[in-house]
Fold each of these.
Amino acid sequence: MELAMPKVSGTYPLYEYVDILNRAFHDASPSNASYNNQVAQHTSIGSKAFALQFGASFAGLTEDELSAKILGNLGVLPNTGLQTAVKEYLVSVGKANVGIVALQLGDILSRLEDATGDMAVYKAAAVAWNAELEASFAYSVNPANVVSSPAGPLGDFGKTVSLTSGDDAITSAQTTPWGDTILAPLNGTLSSTDAIDGGFGIDTLKATLAADVVVAPMLKSVEKVLITAGAGVEFSATGATGLTDLKVDAAAGPATFSGVGLATTVGIQNSGPGGALTVKFAGTGGPADSAQVVFADAMGNDEIIVADIETLNVNSAAGTLAAITTNQARITAAQAEKIVIGGGQALTTTVTGGKVAVVDASAIFRAKLDLTLAGTQGVSIALNSQAAHKVTLGAGADTVSIIGLAGLSAQNMDLSTAATLAASAIEVIGFVSGTDRVQLASASIAAKAAPGSSELASIAASSSLLAAATLAATTAGANKAIAFRYGADTYILVNDGAAALGENDSLVKLAGVTALADASWTSV
């Protein structure tokens, strides 16, 4: 009997056939290497042939056993009626087609999250099944997973290993391939005489260190290290191989990371009392060294000090504390020429560096940046228009470039009141007309409007910022940008394709600027 192939349409459609078959037959997920081979074979011979071949290895089971295996792994048993129906279906189509039947059943179940009527009983199973497929994909595409997952629900398969106050020697024989946690929760349990081999998987060392100690353990295949540090702690990574992520966690004061490889991301999380984290990278000295730092739940007392790095990439990330919606941390980078800021969490920061020439924050995703420049001598700053950013300029001639204004990706302006409109503006502080420049790029290619002096005077005399912006929009017209003064500040309104003021327009505030030279701003 010729069976039709289901049209699987999950998050990862090219690979979901492979995920369904592995979970339906084995209730497990293959290693990364095995998964890549299966995907390549699936691509080579086609979905139908692959499914038939996959199911052929179960030819020794009866139709009833196959029905029980597949439905059990799909999470819909006990259900005597369903199990019997699938058994009879296999008898009808021939169990040589069991691979296709497994795909059909997995596909049907994946579509029942919003089922109604008689099929509503499968809603919970559908949710769990789709989550299982997502987790299976994530497991198998991770190169660190060199063996198949254990049968059963996907989760944290690793073990926890605790260090002692003595000299610990942890070998890969004492760990698992699925990501282990090595704990040194007490002062003195992590020392320079410890040697830890995490083996396969993404392994994490969590250590608490007393104040004013220097610790340099030998670490092999321990990918993540979290240090809860007393004041004055120094953690040396000179003996670490395979370290990708090194963070200070809830520091009680200043701390130092030394001997850190350039491929290791360094960060501050759950900062608590906080303090300055000085990072000494190894392997620097070239003309274009680059490093990565991350903030997560940084609470305002934090500073990261980095030397000998020309390009510093900063990721502002969400942490585990729901109450912390904005990271607050200072960045000091004496040799940095370029600072790149990204991530999806709001960030308040002061960047200090006499050589900083570029700050690129165009990739921060729908999160507000409050940036202050200190000790700089002329910086080009790139911003997107996805949030009401605030930038305080430094000395020298600065250029602020803002992209995506008055477009679908721009933050909507809140026109409810003058106050909400003001809060929607991107604000530039310390702007000096004739010295600094602002460059505006809009989705609608907004050319500069040329209002007359009487029109500008009427806008300036408006009763509120909302009234002024409303009049400025109609004065400028569609797809135009207009600079106008209101109160003690100058504003630039970028209009979209409609002449009237709307939420899709964008507003830039140049705080304290009472007169803006025409050469100090451009709009394209």
Amino acid sequence: MEILQSGGTVNGPVQSPPTPRQWLGLLAVSLGVALIVVDVTIVNVILAPIIDDLDIGSVEAQWIQESYAISFAALLLLTGRLSDALGARKVFLLGLAVFGVTSLSAAVAPDGGVLILARFLQGVGAAAILPTSLALVNASFTGRARGRAFAVWGSTIGAAAAVGPLLGGRLADLSWRWAFGVNIPLVALIVVGTLVHLDASPRARARIDGVGGALSVVGLGLLAFALIEGRTYGWFETVKALDLGAFTWSADPSPVFVAFAVAAVSLGLFWRRQTALGATGGEPLVDVRLFAIGTFRNGNLVTLLVGVGEFGIIAVLPLWLQFALGYSAFETGLALAALAAGSFAASGAGFSLAASVPALRQVRAGLVLESAGLVLLGLIAGTDSAWWLIALALFVYGAGVGFATAQVTNIVLADVPAHSAGQGSGIQSAARELGSALGIALLTTLFFSTLASDLRERLGDAGFPGGKAGRLSDMVTGSAGSVIPSLADDPGTAGAAEPAREAMAHGLELASYVCAALLVLALAATLSFGPRTSAAAAVVEEDSRGGRRPD
């Protein structure tokens, strides 16, 4: 059966409109996704009080931030396959349970070690929630309603990424522990909503490829680690020792370079094994024949590029707001709320557009809006930028996120056979997370490199001797700009504060333009979508037909 972009079918039955129960089920799924996205960004705001309260060092602080993202990315392919084998609703609920228990552990953590472990296990729960949420939405809605449902799902991601700093800034005024504790009643509410409003999911009679699972976890985990930590430990040579308990890595090559190498070997072996299993009638973790489906293959490429462009700017934008413009953590969160407002506005518009505007056209419109918002942000970046111009740029950018993120997912999964929805969702989630990690690696490296070189030049122009200019530049870059207020208060370094703010603004300007260019590249990649046919999907469906039962 050919699936039309507008959501109808050729010679197929007319779909009945979704029931209120289905929309309530979507609300439960979207809240689950919001929880795991918020926990990616909220820790950046509450890290300072965590350091003070638990008396931890920079190494532990860094692992509190990064352990969640690494375990999250590492497990996405495995949990996607488990979703097919066990049923998406069951894996979604298991993920919520893990996320809730580990949120409680994080909230009561007595020291940094327990908090790091809790964050790592939180990532395990998140990895079970994200791909199954996609599978549940894809299975619960059809036709035009599916486009509307994905509009809600997609806007949730953009809005939650922006709301995290706002929520963290407010909760940090009470206690950083509430940033994790607030998850617990929300998890309970989502579990009840899922059980009441979502039917048990069908599951395939399938075995899990344990070797393939191990290879995917090692490969994706190390790839995420390398992308996230490259700037910290050095891309090729070790610039900072890696401490893991009693083990210290200080020799060359850097642990990041080795992680890249091992990840490449692991993922290469993984792909080779999945191809062999598929060719011999085995049960691969990932059915590589899915990539023969044009919308799936090209849609994941666009997803990767969108992840690079979207999440990279979120990593550096708060630094400019706080240390160049002098915003408080809460004021920074309020500024980013404009992004959330744009994303929700796009969701509302997506409801009416789903009936008349194809998903691909909405993706392209979203990418244009995102690029325009980022160009505007680059044009206004300075040390005295007006708040309303910032809000306008972020609103336009957020509206683009709401359109593009939602509907690219709709396109990716539209032709994937129902029994492979978990695999497809896991692959698409992995593409999104790896794109995010790559974007953060690229943009933070660009931002801080620009900051260091530009500030050194500005300090020289301001009359600082070369040696002192270099030391001050290193100090500002090493602190990610947080030392600027202290420089301004010290009469001996007050003259360096304004050049530091200007250098940060220049770094954000360049980062904004680069992100806009990446999103234009994603827009160009959408041209690879030809007329949609499901011939490849039919082959996968026919070859893999088997018994299925509810979870």
Amino acid sequence: MRSGTKTAIVGGVFLVVASGVGYGGYNLWNGVTGGDTSVGTKSDAAPKTGPVTGDEVQATAKDFLAAWAAGEADRASQLTNDPVTAAPAVAAYREGASVSKAEITPGTPVGATVPFTVKATITYEGVSKPWSYASELTVVRGQTTGRPLVKWAPSVLHPKLLTADATVRTGVAKTASVKAVDRNGDELTAEKYPSLGPIIDELRKRYGAKAGGTTGIETWIDSGSASVPDSTLIVLSKGKPGTLKTTIDPKVQAAAEKAVKAYGTAAVAAVEPSTGAVRAVANSPSGGYNTAFLGKQAPGSTMKIVTATMMMQQGVATPSTKVLCPPDVVSRSTTFQNLKRFSITGGTLTEAFRRSCNTAFIKAIKPLSDKNIADTALGETARNSFGIGQVWQVGVPAADGSVPESAGSETPASYIGQGKITMSALNVASLSATVKNGGFLQPYLVARELDDREFAEAERLSPSVTSGLQRMMNATATEADGTAFGAMSGVPSPKGAKTGSAEVDGQATSNSWFTGYSGDLAAAAVVESGGHGGDAAGPVVAKVLRAG
């Protein structure tokens, strides 16, 4: 046996202490039984049934934690209901984490669940650092044996071990340290800007070496998957961070973080129209999935920016053209209607745009059908004029947006941002930025020169189309019956906006969308189940634009 492993009862609390590299090598009890004194003896008694008892819970938890602390992976696994999976996981924890000393303290059971804390020391190449965390285990009765057993899940070992492939590792960091800074050169941190946490991790992964940083020694969760980023738990010794400049504007970012916190699930992105530089990105909840860049959601009536562009480019209508806006319209055997079935008599395309008349834009299909391009024209406009559907090399993962060829009733639905169309808040912010600038400039978070990545390109909008779109978006934001008037009332001119609401299967209330620009800043937001675009997403965008 190895020396340095002991157990004790301190103040009525059971402690497991294992010291010496690789833990102690012997069983902490004379026969780990999981609270079952019949283990190892022959018995004709029927397996126990029913819920586990309090005594069984305490005894099983004690035995499992003792075996784990002793580094006895096989014995610990036999105290679980899935020993085949548990054994290699416990062994990998012991070998991968480089824990030189560990103290595991069970708490007071709550039913069949036992919380516990782990206080450990990690030692790697002569460098040591304390490490502590809390987790819990649940005791269940074995289906065939009737024995009390720990219900196995990787999260028993650490709450961030969420999949069977994940494990804890200690060693030289995979990527070099990076100090991400904003456009002014001040450091960006997840503590100050929670939404940037995953983005900073990704920037470190991609650009650590290019930024001149060196690696340190860390303990991290290895996800075991190329598609799921690793997460650092503790840093034993820091590498020398390289400095990586981003395009983030601290004032706009702070406003974006604050604005989305008002909603349970929301995302916002802001772009500088004259350059394509991303000025802010924020999500609620923060610190997890970057919905603002990676979301793939129907954009609702914000898509009418692209549809109006298509109509002007195809000669269907100009902003002053009279268009029909009935309460409802049948297109390709499907009935579409306006909100509350409103109608406009003798109105122009500008009026239809600012009041978000669905039927006026769906009726545009007829002349395009005569040209046999109704199913493809919208996608071509999105790609060639707005860069949607091309590959965007932003600097971190980002969805490109999709406006695929459609058929049947999907075609009229796509003209009002439904059907198979998907976009992120960044994509929709870029729509407004393109209108303000008169041409598409691919959004980016770090300079393209850093890695010579290729940017997506699109044709500039013609002067007449640019002025027409700006005229319609301005009317939507400044005229009293414009759907964006309320949200944009305090936003400085020159300005323009477009609202949207997108229906989602299985969701009682539609998603709220809003995009707009003010001066040299464009933004877009989506609020899940937020309803009308001006009610939820509108205030988010307005707060961001006012900070620009």
Amino acid sequence: MNVVAGLSVAGLMLPEAVAYAGIAGFTPGRAILAALAGGVAYAVLGRSRFAIVGPTSSSAAILAAALATLPGSPADRGAMATVMVAIVGALFALIALFRLGSLSAFIARPVLRGFAFGLAINIIIRQVPHLLGLKVASSSTLALLAEIASNLGRTNIASITIGVVALALLLGLRATTRLPAALIALMLGVAASRMIDLTALGVASVGPIDFTLSAWTLPDFSFARWSRLAQLAAPLTLILFAESWGTVRTVALRHGDTLSANREFGAFAGANLLSALVQGMPVGAGFSGASANEAAGATNRLAAITALVALATAALLAGPTIEALPEPLLAAVVIAALTHALSPAPLTRLFMIDRDQWIALAAACGVILFGVLDGMLIAVALSIGALLNRLAHPVVSELGSLDGGHDFVDRARHPEARAVAGMAIFRPNAPLFFANAEQSLGTIVTKVLARTGDTDVVLSLEESDDLDSTALEAIAEFEKMLEAKGLSLHLARAHDRVRDVLVVAGFDRLADGASFSVADAVHAVRAGKGNDHVQPA
């Protein structure tokens, strides 16, 4: 099964390498070498059983845009690309060395699901011009769609025919057999190119594949040029960080696999450093490759290793044959591999549970409209913003006793819970900190003043494992306001760190009187007043 999956993936890696080399402005040989070097390094260092490491469309586009800002000959351009790949590897190594993989925790699961959906659509859109036989120059998705629409009259019928037939064949084989559909499609494409003069019909082909390596020497660049290359490598690293972690984490979640972010980033470091040694391109875990590997039934990394062996064999023994492959066929292979990722089920489930659906949609739309990096950053910013909004505006619950026992619950959710006579018991349902302390305690004051007959207020701090200086001052002011109204404040569910900081801040009475449970606080108040009554809700 893994061998068959690997052969299927090899049939995808080849056309992707050709396509992404074209995006970056290099020969296919450079992308193929990058895929081989990156794949070998990841096979040794990485842990995802589905990851296929190689050039990606986003990194290729950013590499092309970065090099376009730098003057120089074609040889200089190749040297600068190699240096940028090496810097990307070094930056990933620093991320792993300083254990900054925890930054990936800010990419929430809904963001990953939206990212995966949007990225699949993004890559498919970028293959449409090849399917239609169009030459386009736009880089952004909207501009690309506009350019395609304005050039529909120039589409090539032969290209469309090849692409549509290939796509139907790929999807049909995948649905009905376990055969390596991509490899079969490529073999049929080779046969068709030998029997028919596709070039005469206006169908673009892969073209020459060059595996020639120049002597590896340290480029004689000025300090300003080195500095500029380092600056340009930073966004390239960010996009590979987002795309690669998003990919491996997404497929891992679907199968219950556990991955170490720091280990994965160390593997991406090795992959890019080895790619630089063979003068390749930036590499990461591509979403289409991982999706194809998953869909083909891979169960371990043998599938990826098989794909590398098949790709190397094809590159060494079938170079002239690869050069004649029609571009629409390669586009169809990429599109077919991504149809697996177009299922809306992960997004519709979020709507069903009414949680984080807009964040997932923002991630999908952001990736489609603004590109991988900007789309991911927008979605991460929205998810952090949503978190801060929830923390800054917590629900404050009034608690009551269940059957006069030890359990105290939200009276709004549990009508059977009864209030304790002479006491108002409240719980902020989020940690108290500078953004919400004054508002939360102010809400409690308003509710307390609207009541009559209370002499004591119990504040449950179970959600707060610590207090910052703003929260401390707000609690002190809260106590003074209650005292001015003839009410006493008692703290319940106070953590040890909260008690410690209260003592250090000089609020010894609050710390000494704090209880470990609401029931203990209520009992302490009753004991002090000789009152042991619970009033009906």
